[in-house]
Amino acid sequence: MTHNRLLPYLALAVGITALSMSAMFVRWADAPGTITGFYRLLISTILFIPFFIREQTRRAPIEFKHLLFPLFAGIFTALDFAVWNTSVEYTTAANATLLGNTSPLWVALFAFFVLREKLRGNFWLGLTLALSGATLVMGSDFLLHPALGFGDLLACTAAVFYAAYQLITQNGRKHIDPFRYIWLVGLSATFGIFIINVLLGNSFVGYTQNTWVVFLATAVVSQMIGYLSISYALGHLPASVVAPTLVGQPILTAILAIPLLGEIPLPIQWIGGGIALAGIYIVNQAHIQKKKELPNA
Q1: Which sequence spans correspond to the domains of the chain?
Q2: How far apart are CA 114 and CA 178, in angstroms?
Q3: Is 0.70 topped by the overall pTM?
Q4: pLDDT greater than 80 at residue 46
Q5: Is the pLDDT of residue 3 over 80?
Q6: Among 189, 185, 286, 292, CA closest to 230
């Protein structure tokens, strides 16, 4: 029982680490952000085909009405990738990652006002601390680089799309296993971001060998490992718990950006990271306490 309860949190940790590399890959690719997003989705979807076929032969067929979940989740994923990958080109990796992960606010508000999900006071305290700490991480960047407002705005917009993906996936994973679900999302998202690139007039060929290596790396690490881990976690934990935990992603990105991109956080940003981590801990403790009080938890 303890092992089963630990797996969703372990999946979260793996997913956060993999997704924290996303901004690095976008920076390293000598291509438009939307193209990097397209190949991230296309390659991962192709590589996932054997897993999809295996699960398709082992499990019951997916009901047609349940296909709407990965379809719409894929559309929001395409929008998220297109907008967020573009934001990395206009702002710092830490800024883009942080603002792209303000989705907990939108998830919590939707869960509270629309889904009528009961959230305890310590949950809101943890959420407030997590977002406040995350704000400190990027606050100094706003002061040092006020011209980056456009990229920051794009990252915030991507967070709304990311929140929509999380909420849809929370419900979709009740009906579809993680392997088939993530493949169907990837298929839908690939077509979506393909159309976006066509509308933008971006070329799909003519990139350097190093850039193609980056395309492959972001597909395997950020998409296959990252999204599958988060998808598994969302199948066992509510989105209102998973989303605040993902605030840890920009903190890890800021740390990785030091050796990989040469972006050194200021002392105030490290303090903000500590506050955000405290908030994440409180959110998870609130979830554990709620589960213990349920009769069949």
Answers
A1: 2-293
A2: 25
A3: yes
A4: yes
A5: no
A6: 185
